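Hi R.,

Here's the chain you asked about this morning:
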Amino acid sequence: MPQDYARVIRNLDENKVEFVIIGAMAAVSLGVPIVTRDLDICYRRSKQNFIALASALGPFHPKLRGAPADLPFKFDSATIEHGNNFTLVTDVGDVDVLGYITAWTVMIRSSRPLRLWSFTASRLK
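And here is the predicted structure, written out as C-alpha cells:
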C-alpha cells in the first residue's frame, strides 16, 4: 500500500481538525533519522472535531486494522464519539487516531505549526 501522509495531513488541515502529530512521524518531522510505517495523530474530543475528523479521513476509506475484512465498520462522527482510539488502514497508509492521551494539554501548549510536504499544517497548535 502506498503511503501518502501528506494527503491525510492536508485533509485534516483543510477540514479544520484540531490535532497534533505524535509518534515516529513527529520525530521524523523534527529530523530524527528513523523509519515509520504509519501516521499517529491525537485529536481533540469535541462534537465539532468528530465531524471534521470523519470528513477528513472518509475519502481514504478507513477500516479497522487487524479486524476481520467482513466486520462492518463506518468511520463517522458517531463512531468517533462512542469510541476513542482507532488503528486504521486507509487507501494512503496506516493511520492511528488517538483521542485519549493524558498529556493533551501539554502537547497543545508545546506543539507548533510545521512545514511538511510543501505546506504548513496550521492545526498543529
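One quick note: The helical segments are 5-14, 23-29, 47-57, 77-82, 104-110.

Cheers,
M.
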